[in-house]
Design brief:
Double-stranded beta-helix; 28% strand; taurine dioxygenase activity; metal ion binding; alpha+beta; TauD/TfdA-like; Taurine dioxygenase; globular; 6 helices
């Protein structure tokens, strides 16, 4: 990182007071715990509007003690838009939009063990993901989130100029092929591959976010392979800076809702052989610009 991250969205505009919810920011860059919201009910328009604003301002929201049913989980996601079906992961019986997120003593891996943006290989990557953890280990199993606004803002002016106008390939083949075979999920004939701008402008806030990730991004279009590899290696390391991050400690029935357009996350699998189980709902997004 060449300079300190600039003030995040929540701090660089005058804050309006919240009338219906309590918002407790976790760090200056990203994340807030929300109180005064019951996700097992149909939120009023006034409460929902404040949740939407908190989402734009804080990038990832956390709600504790939310014993949602699958139908309530799906209903909350649908308030934000149409729901997506994951291209590879297993889903709950009868609910293809409800992705299973689980690891226990029998698992050889856990979901999201590296910094990534969900399904960025899609032509229209998800707008956001809503993860409801029903069972969590007593110790461990935290998830780290990072602001890609802060990652972009902290780049030097020269690096920003170098990246402006460049695009990168996001490929799902090497990520998903055989990934869920041990759970009885058959591979698709082909997984998505897309080209997206490295500097992504958020459709709601208008801010620029760094949009490459080590999970899916394989090369930068128009650069020689060695130059592309070197630049991506630098960006992957840069975006992991602790100043861009928050860390969430899960408790049973906690919910995280992150903006996939301007964040990355990393799930820490340090709790084996304990069990972590939940479901994720994904809201469809649009083509990055």
């Amino acid at each position: 990182m060449t300079k300190p991250a600039t003030a995040p969205f929540v701090a660089d505009r005058p804050r309006l007071a919240y009338s219906h919810i309590l918002v407790r920011p976790l760090t200056p860059a990203i994340g807030a715990e929300i109180e005064g919201v019951d996700l097992t009910t149909d939120l009023s328009d006034a409460v929902f509007a404040e949740v939407e604003r908190a989402f734009a301002e804080n990038l990832v929201l956390f709600f504790r003690n939310q014993p949602m049913t699958p139908d309530q989980h799906l209903a909350f996601g649908k308030r934000f838009g149409d729901l997506a079906i994951h291209p590879a992961a297993p889903s709950a019986p009868g609910h293809p939009e409800l992705m299973i997120v689980a690891a226990d003593e029998h698992s050889s891996r856990a979901n999201g063990e590296a910094w990534h943006t969900d399904v960025s290989c899609d032509p229209e990557p998800p707008m956001g993901s809503i993860l409801h953890i029903r069972t969590s280990p007593t110790v461990g199993g935290d998830t780290l989130f990072a602001s890609m606004y802060a990652a972009w803002d902290a780049l030097s002016d020269g690096m920003k100029a170098r990246l402006a106008g460049l695009s990168a390939v996001h490929d799902g083949e090497h990520v998903y092929r055989g990934l869920y075979a041990d759970q009885g999920v058959a591979d698709r004939p082909k997984y998505p591959v897309s080209i997206h701008p490295i500097a992504r402008v958020h459709p709601v806030t208008g801010r620029t976010a760094l949009f490459v990730n080590s999970g899916f991004t394989t090369r930068i279009v128009g650069l020689a392979p060695d130059e592309s590899d070197a630049l991506l290696k630098y960006l992957f390391q840069h975006l992991q800076h602790p100043a861009f991050q928050c860390r969430f400690r899960w408790t049973p029935d906690a919910v995280a809702f992150w903006d996939n357009r301007c964040t990355q996350h990393h799930a820490v699998w340090d709790y084996w052989p304990a069990r972590r189980f939940g479901h994720r709902v994904t809201v469809k997004g649009d083509r990055p610009v």
